[in-house]
Amino acid sequence: MLRLNLSPFSIALIPLLCFTACDSEQSSAAPQSSSRSKEIAENIDKEEALEAIRLQSVTDPVADKIEAYRKQMAELFYAQKFEALEKEASAARASKEVFGNGSWKIVQFYQAFERKSEDALGIWNVAEDTHNAWLKAFPNSVTARIAYADFLTNYAWHARGTGYADTVTSEGGRLMHERLTKAGKVLNDALKLPEKDPMLHLVALYVALGKGLDKPDYDKLLEEAHASEPTFWGYDTARAYSLLPRWYGNKGDWEAFAVTAAERPDGPGMEVYARIMMRMVDFHENVFRESKASWPKTKEGLDILRKKYPESLEILSYAALLATCAFDNKSAKAYFEELGDRYLEKSSVWPSKESFIHYRKWARTGKW
């Protein structure tokens, strides 16, 4: 049974920053920020700046397919073609289909409906009205409930704002608590339905993060998630994120969890270690210098991912980035040679063109 209301909400516990979507199975309710930009920017020289100007941006072919799919689903949503959405979600659940980067299609289905923090209040209202219309049209739909719970969780963080705890208004805190509580209720109702969906527990994990669920209860929720869908790697990246010291973890917790996740017999194996590293690199200026993370384990997982998903430029870009952070010149050079001049602008991998050039220069020359 989902257990989302065991801990009282506390504004002081939640230092929310900002969130940008990336190649992770995660709800947009999860906040995120990058620590890499400042360090990189301070070391860019004139030659690198000029080379960056000449650099041509490209898009990831996999990301293009995902964006087109999300657009198609969003159009169905706002046109209130709920029967078509029900059929699509059912098919995605049954097939367990993934895109060319390993991202589950069912996750991208739900992310098509998520709003951005900068959206006007009227847009949020339209979205909520549409979710309620979906529930009215399909009152026994697990899909409609999960979509609505995901919306409410996202809306909760929106109410709170993007500042630290001392910037949160009493009204913002009240609305966040109210919306997270409602999201938890919607998820518990969804759990009673016969059709199962891996996204249910992923949204539940982000509700738990916002509600301040303590470690033992969060881990029980994670066990339920793994039991429901053992190979769904989004549960592990979500848990690793929640173990950052900025949330509810202690130093070394998320790194230890990454090892445990990779060793889970029925899990995704070493590739989930790399997935976690791709998630956590944004929260460090240099993740290998500032944590107990293992580059050999990361590289093993990345090589598995690159073999499974050769079309993904984002995975290749993360490999180049992480090899550079690990000061593995040989691997970094090989990854960058494969990338060539393909700079992914619509991606969270590189903070800027200048950072891409700066890292590539080191890979080629061994000098910063």
UniProtKB/TrEMBL annotation:
Protein's recorded name: DUF4034 domain-containing protein
Source taxonomy: Bacteria, Pseudomonadati, Verrucomicrobiota, Verrucomicrobiia, Verrucomicrobiales
